[in-house]
Specification:
209 residues; alpha/beta; seven-stranded mixed sheet; two-stranded antiparallel sheet; binds S-adenosylmethionine; methyltransferase; ubiquinone
Length: 209
């Protein structure tokens, strides 16, 4: 049972059946007062994560999927995946993100694991324990494109069969999508979200099974 204050409901987004805390939520504010300030854009829940949920609602993962959510941020995608029955690990390079991830797990009453690591450091031996790689809003700097491409390449050569990367359509994402189309027959789907707000997102999909 969550101990998160119900009076804070107005600071919770409920979309796709998963709860996301807003930055104004009292428990988020408490973390900030304790100096836990994310510094690599993990300062809120980013809406691209809903594009992966939207797609997987129509094309569900296999039962018992093990998913690595890279650049997981506050963990709303991870919580949604856990609610679908997946075994989920969220990885993020920001040392403060684990506390926000734990809040999201608590408010959604799900079990999911957090690992403090970075795209560059996730080795093939770890990737071989997953069958799905997911990431939302992670390709936001030009220098991240080769890093994420290389992560996808390592994942696919170590037994991961499905990759989903969602984005609002930034240039580094399109560059990643072009490279993945060439190398792994990746495709890009346009996802028109109606919740939590109307917006267009783009989803790189690689199915290697
Ligand atoms: C824009 S936020 C998106 C967070 C989350 N996926 C979402 O949709 O709400 C980008 C996240 O990627 C993480 N990140 C940035 N560079 C990273 C790296 N090299 N390795 C792992 N995580 C990284 C940040 O700490 C941040 O949480």
């Amino acid at each position: 049972m969550s101990r998160i204050r119900q009076s804070q409901d107005k600071h919770i987004i409920d979309a796709y059946g998963v709860k996301a805390l807003k930055a104004a939520h009292a428990d988020v504010q408490k973390l900030k007062r304790r100096g836990k300030l994310p510094t690599i854009h993990g300062n809120k829940v980013w809406a691209s994560c809903y594009a992966i949920m939207d797609y997987l609602q129509s094309y569900p993962l296999a039962e018992n999927s093990r998913v690595l959510d890279v650049g997981c941020g506050w963990g709303v995608l991870a919580a949604w995946l856990a609610k679908q029955g997946a075994d989920v690990v969220g990885v993020d390079a920001d040392r403060h993100i684990g506390d926000y991830f734990a809040l999201t797990a608590e408010i959604n009453d799900v079990e999911m694991q957090f690992e403090h690591s970075s795209f560059e450091k996730i080795m093939g031996s770890e990737l071989s324990t997953f069958n799905v790689l997911a990431g939302s809003d992670i390709c936001f700097w030009d220098e991240l494109t080769p890093v994420i491409f290389s992560l996808i390449e390592r994942a696919l050569s170590n037994g991961v069969t499905r990759v989903y990367i969602a984005d609002p359509g930034r240039p580094p994402f399109w560059s990643l999508a072009d490279q993945c189309a060439e190398a792994f027959y990746g495709t890009v789907e346009t996802i028109e979200l109606t919740e939590p707000r109307k917006s267009s997102k783009y989803l790189l999909v690689i199915h290697d099974d």
